[in-house]
Amino acid sequence: MKKFLDGYCQLLRLLLTVMMAVLLIPVAMQILSRYTGLIPRYIWTEEIARFCFIWIIMLGAMIAVREGTHFEVDVLPHFSPRIEALVRIFTAIAMLFVALTFVWYGYIFTKFGAIQRSEISGLPMWTIFIAWPLAGLSWLAFLGEKLMTDIKILRGETAL
């Protein structure tokens, strides 16, 4: 399972890189059209930039949960590895509720978007809205991996 999640995280990183590159195109077009007369003003560039930005945020959040850099804050003094594992388990349980909320309501949101198109670019809205349930599912997978590791630490099955 770890190899699968490693590969999935690499795919997310690749998609994040691609979305950043794609974002540069409409933003550059907006800047050039606004401040120079080199190209005409396109309306769709703002909408596409916004959609790319949504995906960048969601992909970054997925990766951050895997790496433990998004939702974890070090405010307590360092405890023994078992106590720290217990605190991480409680944090992960709270995050699981958020992930399940994203999956459930994201699914409803995506179904709603299946019958809509964006006004300017004409893209089907489900292609944007599906980012929410995918983020929730990714968080569930990554949190499951973290929970298994922390449970092993609590049981004393891994080296502390």
Blueprint of the fold:
Elements: H1 2-35, H2 44-67, H3 81-113, H4 126-129, H5 131-155
Helix pairs in contact: 1-2, 2-5, 3-5
Count of distinct strands: 0
Structural class: mainly alpha
Q: What quaternary form is this? A: single chain
The major beta sheet can be summarized as:
none
Which overall shape is indicated by the principal axes computed on the Cα atoms?
elongated
**Overall radius of gyration:** 20 Å
Distance between the termini: 22 Å
State the low-pLDDT regions, or none: none
- Tally the structural domains: 1
Number of helices: 5
H/E series? HHHHH
Strand content: under 5%
Tell me the helix content: over 70%
- Mean pLDDT figure: 90
